[in-house]
Amino acid sequence: MRKILLTGKNGQVGWELQRTLASLGDVVAVGRREMDLADPDSIRKVVGEVRPDLIVNAAAYTAVDKAESEPELAMAVNGVAPGILAEEARHLKAAIIHYSTDYVFDGTLNRPYREDDAPNPVNVYGRTKLAGERAIRAAGAPHLILRTSWVYAARERNFLLTILRLAREKNELRIVDDQIGAPTWARLLAEVTSQIVAQHFSSLCRQATSISDASGVYHAVPEGWTSWHGFAARILDGLPDQAMTARPKLVPIPTSGYPTPAKRPANSRLDGDKLRKTYDLAMPTWENSLALCLEEVGQIYFQHDSAWHV
Hints:
Largest sheet: 6 strands, parallel
CATH architecture of the domain at 3-153 and 183-222 and 270-283: 3-Layer(aba) Sandwich
Number of strands: 12
Order of helices and strands: EHEHEHEHEEHEEEHHEEHEHH
Strand content: 15-25%
CATH topology of the domain at 3-153 and 183-222 and 270-283: Rossmann fold
Number of helices: 10
Strand order of the largest sheet: 2-1-3-4-5-10
CATH superfamily of the domain at 3-153 and 183-222 and 270-283: NAD(P)-binding Rossmann-like Domain
Distance between the termini: 38 Å
Radius of gyration: 19 Å
Structural class: alpha/beta
CATH class of the domain at 3-153 and 183-222 and 270-283: Alpha Beta
């Protein structure tokens, strides 16, 4: 079987990828204990031992606000490590799939961003992710960079689980309503990745020129968009009555009403037509994905005789 090295196995996307990639090859999944992305020697050691045909890099420094005070660590993980992984992939005649973000853009356009729009990140996190994209391209390995936005899941830390927790603790939630984007379920991202790998695997592993023709940046997001306030409202709409003693009031506020260390782009919409057309993928709406995720959240956290345990 062809060998896949998956990084970030304990993250939102990595957890899902372990399952969706399992039927496509021998998946060697590593987390921070096995591979320290801030340590180039650790990266090279693991890749050299595994000798994968494909690297799927789902690991990242994702603490957007904390990155403002830890720029060196964020750059090491998000900016330098992807380039090292890509260099090692090139040496092995392997390929790499990497995940990036809507935060490489400044959010000033009045339409969804396309892959060829000029990046202009407004925070440290976005700058480090852009550096990672450029490092991968410079390494010369066959690569696919999948930019996505507003990732959530039934596990780890994310906006959805934060809303579930706050809905039990507060009578009123003040949620930003002037930032827009597409909430993306981690499982959808993992399933899309696996469909791409299934289409390309033979060329990824044995004929690098074929994947080289497809190498580049793709936007991987569901259909549609909303604001954080709209996202929160949809989450609450999808909860059973037992999940809350009383539904909290949602109050829309501007970004200025919720100051954070890192600036956020107002427009995080990504145009996903390139990915859909290239791989003939039919993407669901963000609302449909959220409904499926909430079903899973209920199975994990909700007990009929008690409250949500998030």
